[in-house]
């Protein structure tokens, strides 16, 4: 299954071992995007600690890759312990790749993953002035509630169906095959 993305970009899940790619991507965000991603200005040190703490088996992060470089990410993390019914989602796309449909594609994949994990409610925390994220969430019928200058978008995730599970597996298959090609081409380049 192919995503109609710019410049031959692909979306696939990040592996736990790829935390360094995620960290470098977040560090490359320009000031405004970084502020929007984290709900305020944060230091490089904060981002480094965030990635080492947040990279765990319970988080599902989809990455948007262009020529092997991670240019965008959508993170999904259960809230609470045990069988969580609520999760939090956060998105980051590097400036030159913004407003080309990448956020929409990452949100679609994140919603599918949320659905298949049985999350009923997805929280998206973003600043009140972040119209783009709100527009994006509205495309998926998010209910938005204003709260102290920030917006929490809550998307009802429908129940998993065999079809939705198969769709996720197929999309992972595509991502995995492409990832293997990327690894091979990187190996060839360094050989
Ligand atoms: C917010 C963000 C995830 C959106 O992703 P994106 O790839 O730029 O967005 P898309 O191209 O998929 O566009 C989504 C919708 O936003 C709106 N939009 C796009 N560009 C816009 C712009 N420059 N101004 C206002 N709205 C805009 C449109 O309604 C668009 O839907 P449409 O194309 O069907 O009309 C991305 O810009 C980003 O990472 N920003 C910095 C970090 C951030 O704000 N994260 C969100 C907090 S969790």
Can you walk me through this structure?
The protein is α+β, with helices and mostly antiparallel strands and 191 residues long. Helices cover 42% and strands 26% of the residues. It contains 6 helices and 7 strands. It has a 7-stranded mixed sheet, sandwiched between helices. The protein starts with 9 loop residues before the first strand and ends with a helix. The mean pLDDT is 79.
List the helices and strands and how they pair.
Elements: E1 10-13, H1 19-28, H2 31-38, H3 44-54, E2 60-66, E3 69-79, E4 86-93, H4 102-116, E5 121-127, H5 131-138, E6 143-147, E7 150-156, H6 162-190
Parallel strand pairs: 4-5
Antiparallel strand pairs: 1-2, 2-3, 3-4, 5-7, 6-7
The structure holds coenzyme A.
Give the tags.
binds coenzyme A, globular, 6 helices, 191 residues
Distance between the first and last residues' Cα:
31 Å
Which percent band covers the strand fraction?
Answer: 25-35%
Shape: globular
Q: How many beta strands in the DSSP annotation?
A: 7
Approximately how much helix is present in the residues? 40-55%
Structural category: alpha+beta
Q: Please give the radius of gyration in angstroms.
A: 16 Å
Largest sheet: 7 strands, mixed
